[in-house]
Design goal:
Blueprint lengths: L36 E6 L13 H9 L10 E4 L5 E2 L54 E2 H20 L3 E3 L1 E4 L5 E6 L26 H10 L31 E2 L4 E2 L10 H19 L4 E5 L18 H10 L6 E5 L38 H4 L4 H6 L6 E4 L26 E7 L8 H10 L2 E5 L5 E9 L8 H14 L8 E3 L3 E4 L4 E9 L14 H4 L14 E8 L44 E7 L7 E4 L5 E9 L6 E8 L68 E3 L2 E3 L8 H7 L2 E4 L2 E5 L10
Parallel strand pairs: 1-2, 2-5, 11-12, 17-27
Antiparallel strand pairs: 1-13, 3-4, 6-7, 7-10, 8-9, 13-14, 14-26, 15-16, 15-18, 18-22, 19-20, 19-23, 21-22, 23-26, 23-27, 24-25
Helix pairs in contact: 2-3, 4-5
């Protein structure tokens, strides 16, 4: 994929209509927004400090570097699992990663490289707290590694690269599974701008990650240390909370934190864990409201909530989080990583055990849907239920990088993960003005919801705006709104115009207003990051010959839902579990409909409003942008609005009715038919032979060129089966692993709210 330089342009302010009266303005009046740009980043990934395969140096270099085989992210949060780890992820693999402050470390006796799998003990690091494990592989608590080891090298590399690289955490969540989070207080201070970096080993940081380390000690489920952070002597009390009620809490006076205990049916450990997690959000809201975020990760994967153990998240838990800390718990990572694995996202049927039950439960939804969990992918599902309340609840994606499965970390193929920036990206509007990118501006940007996520470089630029128009002197034309969107897309920025709104914002209008919506996207020219140049096998089923590494946007959908206000705790429509197992995803890969979903987890008003493509009645218009690249623009009007509502976007490289990929309405089907974990379900053959197809035993890097035929590692048909393309024989290569991911690409935008005077107030969005 060809990536283009970003530049900022001045936007001309246009006339606007005041909220109370339809009066034609006589002067240009702009809203007060600090200028910003959309920048790409990732906040969920792993090194050898938790369960990843590579060092921090290598992960940061691969993710933020600009050379061939590096992915060029603009910002990066290193966020491994909470709990403990035995390996020293700060040590480099080889001399190419060495820096003056962190040179290559070798054994004084043997000369062997002490790389990132070297244990903390064999690195000479003193372990603190209630240390677990067996020497020389005893574990370091994550609080210590973040505070004393990982943060210093992160700060150093951020200064060396002049890139905002900071520390976060994939918390092991009490009562649930995992969440991507950070507390940025103390990290990358402005004094770092003028620091003189050392030319010899060793680095003394200007800032610190003490607040994040304390959170890890206090609230991560994987942290059972009772030392109070050794010399730190932390207390985890939240002001105003009473921990004396043992039916709700298990307060440990030695550790000065909540440690939910118990096991088995009736233990309530999941319920108590959830309450602990809510306390963690209250703690962040109290102490670090402006410098924290908390985004549940792959939240459908572990199945529904289990009151007696630690499993998944139901819709009520997301509401509880957002109620407790609206500035911090403001979204979900429903487009998970692990996109190249045998089960996309590591979601699967009968994945999880529940205490006291012999029946295992599916990941919620049973699989991903075009790489997105059912909470985000299902029109009218959980995400729409939350948006229908008017909540600030945003859509995010992540890499969840660990390794490349059967391949080495530098191979272009994968049977597990993609690097941060290689496949999925969050594009966040960061209002840094003339200042450099800093963690605070990035977190502020995430919080606003002015964010969109894309897989496989299907698009790399988006402007999505809505403006009010009234009959008479307050009228705006579609052409004027479209000009705003074109200008924003040219500048890779948003709008700064009164009477208009973009993602994560609300547009306040009078009843009867026309809302003019304009969308501009860039489907970038050239090749993507995919190593495969052979035709997309999924599209070959419908007669489309499109190279996997040159995806083309097929259509953009506009989805609308009505806003009816916050649902109240204890009400019948507040709590509800998504249907389990074959009550949703059936054994044949078909799904139920929303009629089986409880009221709490759906918004039946959400539906497809418009769909734009290259041809037909709603055809987009291609044009040449200011930088010479081609963009697509599409504009329409929502007439005479009477009730509060929201609009959101999705788009894909797949047309409607692609067998095993999309339904007749263009919705993504479950990834049931391309998941290699059950080869009997595979249905899309990969038949291109090619002339440049390496064996799986050969390392294939960026310098090796494109692979022009179906790769050797694809799963094969275990028996003769009939597909939409006809019969296939035993041993036929089938679309699976990374080929399945590169074949099936989606982007999602966050919503624009329209608040109509006299209708429901969109209370969650300022």
């Amino acid at each position: 994929m060809q990536f283009f330089s970003k530049h900022q342009i001045a936007l001309a302010a246009i006339s606007f209509l005041g909220a109370a009266s339809a009066v034609a303005p006589t002067a240009s009046v702009a809203a007060t927004k600090v200028p910003g740009q959309y920048v790409a980043g990732d906040f969920h990934n792993h090194t050898t400090c938790s369960d990843g395969a590579i060092s921090m140096q290598k992960l940061i270099k691969k993710s933020t570097g600009k050379d061939n085989g590096e992915w060029g992210l603009d910002w990066f949060v290193q966020a491994g699992h909470g709990g403990t780890g035995s390996r020293n992820c700060t040590l480099a693999e080889d001399a190419s990663l060495a820096t003056p402050a962190y040179p290559l470390v070798t054994d004084a006796t043997t000369g062997a490289i002490k790389g990132p799998t070297t244990t903390w003990e064999n690195s000479g690091v003193t372990l603190k707290g209630n240390v677990s494990g067996t020497s020389p592989s005893r574990n370091m608590w994550r609080w210590q590694s973040i505070k004393e080891v990982q943060y210093p090298i992160t700060e150093y590399l951020a200064a060396l690269k002049n890139t905002p690289v900071f520390m976060g955490l994939e918390s092991v969540v009490a009562g649930h599974e995992h969440s991507s989070m950070a507390v940025i207080t103390g990290q990358l201070p402005t004094s770092l701008d003028s620091v003189v970096l050392p030319t010899t080993p060793g680095y003394t940081p200007q800032g610190n990650a003490t607040a994040l380390a304390q959170w890890s000690y206090c609230f991560d489920r994987g942290d059972s240390d009772t030392s109070r952070g050794a010399e730190n002597q932390w207390s985890c009390e939240v002001t105003g909370s009473d921990y004396s009620d043992t039916t709700k809490f298990n307060w440990n006076t030695t550790a000065m934190k909540l440690i939910p205990t118990g096991s088995g049916v009736g233990s309530g450990v999941g319920t108590k864990g959830h309450l602990k997690t809510v306390e963690s959000l209250k703690w962040m809201q109290e102490k670090h409201a402006g410098g924290s975020y908390y985004v549940p990760a792959h939240l459908e994967r572990a199945g529904p909530f289990n009151p007696d153990s630690n499993n998944g998240f139901n819709v009520e838990h997301l509401r509880n989080f957002n109620n407790a800390a609206p500035d911090i718990a403001f979204g979900m990572e429903t487009q998970p990583g692990h996109g190249a694995s045998a089960e996309r996202g590591e979601y699967r049927q009968l994945r999880n055990s529940f205490v006291g039950s012999a029946t295992r439960v599916d990941s919620v939804g049973g699989s991903t849907y075009g790489g997105t969990g059912v909470y985000g992918a299902q029109v009218g599902g959980v995400w729409d239920a939350l948006l229908g309340e008017g909540r600030n609840w945003w859509f995010f994606a992540s890499s969840d990088w660990h390794n490349r499965g059967q391949f080495g970390p530098d191979d272009r193929r994968s049977t597990q993960d993609f690097y941060p920036g290689e496949y999925q990206r969050n594009y966040t509007l960061v209002r840094n003005g003339s200042d450099k990118l800093r963690p605070q501006a990035i977190v502020d940007g995430l919080r606003t919801g002015n964010n969109w996520a894309s897989s496989g470089q299907i698009i790399d630029r988006l402007a999505f705006i809505a403006c009010a128009s009234y009959a008479g002197r307050g009228a705006r034309t579609a052409a004027s709104v479209e000009a705003l969107a074109v200008s924003a897309a040219n500048g890779n920025t948003d709008i700064n115009v009164s009477g208009c709104a973009t993602m994560g914002e609300k547009l306040a209008v009078n009843p009867g207003a026309n809302v003019i919506v304009s969308i501009v996207v860039r489907d970038p020219a050239g090749v993507s990051s995919s190593p495969y140049s052979f035709p997309n096998p999924s599209l070959l089923q419908v007669g489309i010959n499109q190279p996997l590494n040159q995806p083309v946007l097929d259509h953009v959908d506009v989805i609308r839902g009505m806003v009816t206000g916050f649902r109240q705790p204890g009400a019948a429509d507040y709590a509800g579990e998504w249907p389990r197992n074959t009550d949703w995803l059936r054994a044949d890969g078909s799904t139920a409909d929303l009629s089986v979903v409880p009221a709490a987890a759906k918004n039946t008003s959400a539906a497809l409003l418009k769909s734009f493509s290259a041809a037909g009645s709603n055809a987009w218009t291609a044009f040449t942008a200011a930088d010479g690249t081609q963009m697509l623009k599409m504009t329409f009007t929502v007439p005479a609005v009477q009730a509060s509502q929201y609009l959101r976007l999705r788009g894909t490289n797949l047309p409607a009715s692609v067998p095993y990929e999309t339904d007749a309405n263009g919705n993504p089907l479950p990834d049931f038919f391309t998941n290699a974990a059950n080869t009997a379900n595979l249905r899309v053959p990969c038949t291109t032979v090619g002339t440049n197809v390496p064996t799986s035993a050969v390392s294939w890097t960026a310098a090796s060129g494109a692979i022009d035929g179906c790769p050797a590692h694809l799963a094969t048909a275990p028996a003769a089966i009939t597909t939409a393309s006809g019969p296939v024989a035993v041993g036929q290569k089938m679309v699976s692993y990374d080929v399945a991911a590169w074949a099936d690409l989606w982007f999602y935008s966050n919503p624009i709210y329209v608040q109509v005077k006299g209708s429901t107030v969109v209370a969650g969005v300022k």
